[in-house]
Amino acid sequence: MKVASSQGRVAWRWPAWVVSAAVFGIHVLYERGRVRSAPRITAVHASLAAALGAFGLAIAANVQAYSVGAREHALTLALSVAIWPIMTALPAFVVALVAAILFDQVFAARLALRLPLVTTI
Q1: Radius of gyration of the chain from its Cα atoms, rounded to whole angstroms
Q2: What's this model's pTM, rounded to 2 decimal places?
Q3: How many independent structural domains does the chain possess?
Q4: Across the 121 residues of the chain, what is the mean pLDDT of every consecutive 10-residue run?
Q5: Domain that holds residue 90
Q6: Which of 47, 56, 31 is nearest to 87 (CA)?
Q7: Distance between CA atoms of 10 and 86, rounded to whole angstroms?
């Protein structure tokens, strides 16, 4: 989809960021809450998913540049296929690891509050 103005590009970019962040957060919550993966495994899975998305965007950028005949950035776009996933996976791993550990802390605190007090008979 071709957007005519800079405002149009920004208008599409913000919802894309929000959806990406929501999917990333849901992935972390699913891994910790439903699958019960360890925090490190959760972070690996979420960061690999983010890297896969970045790889898809890099491929799409290359295909789009090739289809319109834009050759001036051919080397940069070719390198993006390797660089974008790495650039995305590393911070995604850190964010997912912190989120998984915080999830454990919050969940443990909530669980502790629900435990009945030990009473003697």
Answers
A1: 21
A2: 0.78
A3: 1
A4: 69 90 94 91 96 94 84 84 95 97 84 60 59
A5: 6-114
A6: 47
A7: 25
